[in-house]
UniProtKB/TrEMBL annotation, chains A, B, C:
Alphabetical list of Pfam families matching this protein: Gly_transporter (PF03458)
Protein topology in the membrane: Multi-pass membrane protein
Keywords, ordered alphabetically: Cell membrane, Membrane, Transmembrane, Transmembrane helix
Name this polypeptide is given: Trimeric intracellular cation channel family protein
Family note: Belongs to the UPF0126 family.
Native source organism of the sequence: Microbispora triticiradicis
Location(s), subcellular: Cell membrane
Chain ranges passing through the membrane: 30-49, 61-77, 83-104, 116-134, 146-165, 172-192
Domain Glycine transporter span(s) in chain numbering: 4-77, 89-163
Amino acid sequence: MTPALDLAGIFVFALSGALQGVRKRLDVVGMAVLAFFTAVGGGITRDLFIGVQPAAFRDTGYLLVPIAATAIAFFWHPQVERAMPGVLVFDAAGIGLFCAVGTAKALAYGLSPLHAVLLGVCTAVGGGVIRDVLSGEMPTLLYDRQLYAVPAMLGSTAMAVLYALDIRGFAATLSSAVLAFALRILAMRYGWRAPLARGVGGPV
Amino acid sequence: MTPALDLAGIFVFALSGALQGVRKRLDVVGMAVLAFFTAVGGGITRDLFIGVQPAAFRDTGYLLVPIAATAIAFFWHPQVERAMPGVLVFDAAGIGLFCAVGTAKALAYGLSPLHAVLLGVCTAVGGGVIRDVLSGEMPTLLYDRQLYAVPAMLGSTAMAVLYALDIRGFAATLSSAVLAFALRILAMRYGWRAPLARGVGGPV
Amino acid sequence: MTPALDLAGIFVFALSGALQGVRKRLDVVGMAVLAFFTAVGGGITRDLFIGVQPAAFRDTGYLLVPIAATAIAFFWHPQVERAMPGVLVFDAAGIGLFCAVGTAKALAYGLSPLHAVLLGVCTAVGGGVIRDVLSGEMPTLLYDRQLYAVPAMLGSTAMAVLYALDIRGFAATLSSAVLAFALRILAMRYGWRAPLARGVGGPV
């Protein structure tokens, strides 16, 4: 994968974690903890489930980028908040990239395509779930009905299908990531929502 | 172990996770996440603590059964809720089975009997703890005073004792599971409760 | 490391977990779960992040000490609560010891100094975070502005610097632990606080 792209995805996710820290009036330690786990928590979980040491503890960039994002949110959070609609586009790009990269890593370690798709989704959305659990909230992912996991699932599936067809490397990653990104953007634009169980109203 | 029994235990646990999702008005993604981690979260935790790759990411059944349970809860949750008293019997069977299987796996990997009992309990009750944490609630296990972990602890202890006596395989698993199951059913029937610290009233 | 010191640190942390269980009126199972994870949760997390089997599942003391702390809190929690100001001094000693030991273990497994510092902090404060998440609360660490992670960070940094200078073993552990301990005690004594993001008031 292109490490620069990877670090860009981590930066955007870390920024969203640090901002959640500001909103909850956490101190700078809390901001840094949320920034770090939002950014790399999905990848850490994926690696533990694959059974290898999490890459975040081998690569210094995975640590420095969340620290930089924390510093930016610490000093300029009002400006970053105002830029959030733009940040959501980068977040969608992060989802796309992370689901593709996560699926590829799971397949490279010999997991079944079904498990690889699960771990691709986990890479993309796991950090946000950890951020919410650490913030003392139910994970947004579980109830807010936005299509967030679903685009990741389709991007991961595309990646697994291309892998089975022996189409690998940058082209496969890019097209899967773009598919997930486009679906996420369309879901935001048109307000597509995940269904509730039959006969159930929305959250109280 | 008998894989069919194992999958039956996973099915019952997944159903209880998916139903909790319906009660909390989660969307279908949230239901599936709760179903999956309720069913296999205990085993995943056990495997991470043993230091091996979680079995749930090697076996396709561990993924398909929670998806099936989610689909059933999605369409027929009122009927499943009505059948819950019956489901609790299956849940007790799941506890029995999981504590026996979990203890055996830990012993097979050379852990001490004491640690194997801990991991047997963890296999049986860990999924429910993860379900509650993801739902934004304190784990029921910690406060509700029902004997839930205690039957698992006795079943796991039986398994470890039989193992030390060189009685292994299906007979040991079955008798340990039946012991935990019977204690859990008796605890439900007679309302046995775990003690609070000396001089403390119930939860406020 | 001196195992007796290590077990003393675990005992103090386990006591604080069991007491939180009493305050939340948990039953004895909940008390034991909080005691165990408060005491060894930081080390478990560190070991998973290093990619080795958690030491807590190899060493019987790591299991028996939390059980003993639970029993003490169960029968004598009013006395222990009254002794808490004294216990906080032991807690500070635990932080110092755990950050030094955790950093040393990460370095011994070949992690970079930066990651080793992160894992030293994680060893010292991770158990408290898990205790709070299991109790259904936001981790105190994230918002309460006490200098708790910061002394651990400085102790871990001292350990990593000494390691780079080839000063290892008991002398390095002791001096790093004493540094973190002293900073923690000074922070408590003078009410030093971690900063909030620029322009943000305290928690609502």
